[in-house]
């Protein structure tokens, strides 16, 4: 069936009982920096701070009297939940929302405040969805999908209708965040019908790229796992109906890293003084990547700021990763002579460069190992120059800018090497952050092997990250890794990692 069937549905969608027509903001600072005209469709300004309200209400208002009486249920990482809760409140329908346990508290509280019953279950959307569908069978509730539904897609498509009414100048491309695909399906169907010359570019996190994988395989695929930093787009499989539209109407899909998303949040803040949630900044991260890849200049580009529901405590993590995402910070390990005046001499050699971080502790011997962060021009252009300058002055330097261990753990642990710790193996772990997660992790490890080093920091990220040293004799390593495989946590052996070797390895 042709995707054009959505056009009438979009035109007929009655979303403005609860939604507003959001403005388009010209991102002046970003436009000047990238020599293009960059525009933001501000869906973060909706009553529930997300575009999801449009599809949820459009679907709910079409329920039969019998369906309204029995009540509705949905699974959502938060934004669809808030939209549906408000829709149910407006229509006088009892709503149950199943949410992953990793959903930001601000979204959970918002749903409850609108009168919906909240059930928290699982680490990602797909687990919550399975439970919700089970409740449909048991209690006869009507399931309101977050994206895989024609009326939901049509409701989301009203975003595109507004854009083309509000912005009549030539538009080279629109960058649309992709999770389950409802937004990009509705927008792409409408735009390609009205203005087919406009490129439709989907943007996904690298660790949750279900549409990209599906288009490459020419069929829907289920990802083994998804990253949940941008929890609003953390979906293992693109929706069936959205995929039908995407195959026909989406020009390409770009993927972005967590650091690039964090930089996108800052970009939006700089131009609007508003803080987007990670999923809301995915589009701007992809837009920037596209400009750099294509060498584009002088074009009109649009992206959707899809939501602003972010926990305040996550801002710590976001700000920490932003400088790296913008490629404005170099993280280096530098060896200095262990003698008076070395620090001053090193700082002098940096000339006018701003030091963002400096970690050091005295250790016996003739050399001192320092951990230093330095600000560099946007885009990382000055990084190689900096390294060459320092090396020409005789400083042994290791570039740790792309070293995850250095960025997440080592920078908080620099303090000297342990003495006499033998047979140390070093591992890095990741698991979804939730109450009791660390205790569960420690309990799983048991007590057979001695822990010689441990670092954990909860700074608002979606994942708990542990950096741990364990004393394991060579013949026991296979048994230890077999235990880790059985536990099921994601892990990496980092014993040979340069940052560990330089700063923490036992003498």
Structure description:
The protein has 507 residues and is an alpha/beta fold. Strand 4, helix 6 and strand 5 form a beta-alpha-beta unit. The chain is built from 20 helices and 18 strands. The chain starts with a helix and ends with a helix. The longest helix is centred in the first third of the chain and has 17 residues, at 150-166. The model has no long low-confidence stretch (mean pLDDT 88). Helix 1 packs across helix 8, helix 3 packs parallel to helix 5 (79-91) and helix 12 (258-272) packs across helix 13 (278-294). The chain folds into four domains: 5-48 and 150-323, 3-Layer(aba) Sandwich (Rossmann fold), CATH 3.40.50; 52-143, Rossmann fold (3-Layer(aba) Sandwich); 327-402, Alpha-Beta Plaits (2-Layer Sandwich); 420-503, Biosynthetic Threonine Deaminase, domain 3, CATH 3.40.1020. The chain has a six-stranded mixed beta sheet, sandwiched between helices. Strands 5-4-3-6 form a four-stranded parallel beta sheet, with helices on both faces. The protein is 41% helix and 20% strand.
Largest beta sheet, briefly? Answer: 6 strands, mixed
- Give the CATH class of the largest domain: Alpha Beta
Residue share in β-strands: 15-25%
| Cα Rg | 25 Å
CATH topology assignment of the largest domain = Rossmann fold
N-to-C terminal Cα separation, in Å? 69 Å
User: Strand pairing plus helix content: what structural class?
Assistant: alpha/beta
CATH architecture annotation name of the largest domain: 3-Layer(aba) Sandwich
